[in-house]
Design goal:
Elements lengths: L2 H10 L17 E2 L5 E5 L4 H6 L6 H12 L8 E5 L13 H18 L3 E5 L1 H7 L6 H4 L4 E3 L2 E6 L2 H6 L4 H17 L10
Parallel strand pairs: 2-3, 2-4, 4-6
Antiparallel strand pairs: 1-3, 5-6
Helix pairs in contact: 1-4
This protein binds uracil (URA).
């Protein structure tokens, strides 16, 4: 068993916080863990909880469109996961203690994957992973450097569904990501890394 599948197996049995009592599935993540780009959302919604796969509901369909528009394939070019791996009831924001309890899974995913770019989908991931005072409406699309790691936040696709006038701004972020990947020699490495 690879280290990645062993981590996934452990995560699927997680009982580190109360969300384990209401979840139907743990949503570990999906895509290519050898890709250079990691997307991090907030937490599974209803469909994701039912299917055990991130971003498969309406927000996920919009995310797929944004990715396709910049020639990114979610199976091959990136890996997608969430700050919390289990659905918060009624899709409420994950509580700080739930995020903290779940953070170790993400830390281990990052340690094994060693992404070059992390894209935070929405405020919750951006505040936890980039900086606590992140103002996503102003700072989305901006590139932050943490050591060798590049980080960017974009608006959460669910927020774009609620506020379609923000879509062009979010699309700019995806174009920025595309340009960034085109500039980097490691960007096409995918499965061969
Ligand atoms: N919203 C998220 O933040 N993550 C998902 O997986 C689905 C919706």
């Amino acid at each position: 068993m690879t280290q990645w599948s062993s981590l996934e197996k452990d995560c699927l049995n997680c009982q580190k916080c109360g969300l384990c009592s209401t979840r139907r599935h743990v949503v570990f993540g999906a895509g290519n863990p050898q890709a250079p780009v990691l997307f991090v959302g907030e937490g599974p919604g209803e469909r994701e909880d039912l299917e055990g796969i991130p971003f498969v509901g309406r927000a996920g369909q919009l995310l797929d469109k944004l990715l396709a528009a910049v020639d990114l394939d979610r199976e091959k070019d990136l890996y997608i996961t969430n700050m919390v791996k289990c659905r918060p009831p009624q899709n409420r924001d994950p509580k700080p203690e739930e995020q903290e309890a779940c953070m170790e899974w993400l830390r281990q995913q990052v340690a094994l994957m060693r992404p070059k770019v992390v894209v935070c989908l929405g405020r919750i991931a951006a505040m936890k992973l980039i900086k606590p005072d992140m103002k996503i409406t102003r700072e989305h699309g901006k590139i932050f450097k943490k050591g060798d790691l590049l980080m960017m936040a974009t608006l959460h696709p669910a927020a774009l569904l609620r506020n379609p006038s923000a879509k062009p701004g979010a699309f700019e972020d995806f174009l920025r990501l595309q340009r960034l990947l085109q500039e980097k020699s490691w960007a096409g490495e995918g499965l061969t890394k």
